[in-house]
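Dear Dr. H.,

I hope your travels went smoothly. While you were away I took the liberty of generating a structure for the chain from your last submission, since the lab meeting agenda had it listed for discussion. I wanted you to have the full record in hand beforehand rather than looking at slides cold. The sequence, exactly as received, is reproduced here:
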Amino acid sequence: MQAIRDFYKAFGYLKNYLGKYKKNRFISRIFTTLETIFELLIPMLVGKILNTAVYNKDLGLAIKYGLLMIFIALITMYCGMQATKNAGLTGSGIAANTREAEFRKIQTFAFEDLEYFGVPSLMTRITSDMQMLAQSTFMSTRFVIKTLVMAIFSFVLAFRASAKLSLIFLIGVPLLFAVLMTITTFAIPKFRKARVQYDRQNLVIEENLRNMRVIKAFVRKHYEMDKFEVENDGLYRLDDGSNGDMSFIFPISNIILFTTFVAITYFGGVEIIEGRLGVGDLISFNMYATMLLGAFIGLNMVLTTFMSASPGVSRVVEVLTRKISLDNDDKIEGLDLEDGSIDFDKVSFKYEQDSDDYQLEDIDLHIKSGESIGILGPTGSSKSTLVQLIPRLYDISKGTLKVGGHEVKSYDLKTLRDRVSIVLQKNTLFSGSIAENLRWGDEGASDEEVKLASQIAQAHDFVSQRYEGYNSVLGQGGSGVSGGQRQRLTIARSLLKKPKILILDNSTSAVDTKTESAIIDGINKYSKDLTKIIISQRISSFKYVDRIIVMDEGRIADIGSHEELYQRNKIYRQTYDIQAQGGDDNE
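The corresponding predicted structure, in token form, is as follows:
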């Protein structure tokens, strides 16, 4: 029963996404009710034919009743068709609306929220869980009303035909209900585990497809096949266990159904022999009994669907009701970022709020608008974490962070991220033309602006050499260009945003130092007022910066010019000496 309550609580929330399909749900319920009422008239007519026309050998009356039954059957068929059609529209409609709402909600997620659910789980929730929602909506719209109306009216009409025989239902119906509740109690936990197992299987599939080149390079296909087999077998066992439990419902229901009919036939025969019941009345009663018990079996089927759908529907609601980690509650309406100054005052940050381990501690850093900053440090020193706080990809845990003279939370997120352009370590392009990818920075950018940004990022030459130039179509993930070309395109895309602050997070690691130098020089000439932060492991990347920051273990170890840091900072000096010995990568 708890599972049913959970389902209806979740489904009650999702009914808000019916939208225009409320009309289809209403139409389906009307036609379902009419269909059921007309079905219930047929046993009544059968009884009349037997008790009057057949008993009195009146052929004309039998034909009259027969034609009426055919007419009612045709109306019943039409009502059933309309009810099914509109129930289907209701199910697919609410799934479409909810899927769109969930996708929109995911777009607002912070990294913390994405990490909480995980990409494979979100994929399952927006695909197969939505199918569960569509199916359960169809069943509830089409069959819940039908079974309830059928059960109530068939019992009333059966009672009217024979009150004494109706007492048999007092045994059969509770038995059916008890069987359903007992079996679903064991099945529901397995359905919930199966949804989680779907996530695990999706993770294996996603990793395998995304990293196919690595798998082939290391000849690990058999390892991956074995790993998938384990997850697939786990899903099979859970599905088999839950479906195995539910498979008992219909055989046991049929046993109860047939036993009930045997009892009805026996006691009904006694009633006929003793003259208290007509043959037609017994046949009508049997038909109503079939409808009544069939309604309960149908209700079993509906509830079975609800049981299997309940975990999926609840997971959909969990995404839609998730409180976003980054809120916009403190924003000042109309506030724009007017300059690129950045001020960290005693800032500390940790990914998990309950953890005692901080990734950044006591950061004091003040960057003037238009200043160029380089950031160097060993792997794991939280360089990327530091710059991701500026556009609020994460929120600080302690201290104060100001951008453009105002606390970072004072800005609307869209305004802030439009003014702070960050090229992350992982350079991502999307399927579509090169021009479409570049215009992610500015949808209304002219061809001249696209060309200028590409020239600054040293991308124009290789794009122009392609057969279709900027209209060349890239595959999924930007396939069709090299790593260095992808980096240059993402830099051009960021420049098209015309930001106040530009952050390059190891975004030139795949290009040679000559090209990198040309990119940095072009960016400096592009805008004197642009604040630039460059994270790199190559000291040659800091040729044009005003100051260099050395980070170590989540703290700022030192700040200064190349000469100052070489004299007093061990990390910087060792890094420079190693790279100087290796020589320029153009040589």
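Two observations you may find useful: The CA atoms of residues 372 and 544 lie 8 Å apart. The longest strand covers residues 342-349.

With kind regards,
E. W.
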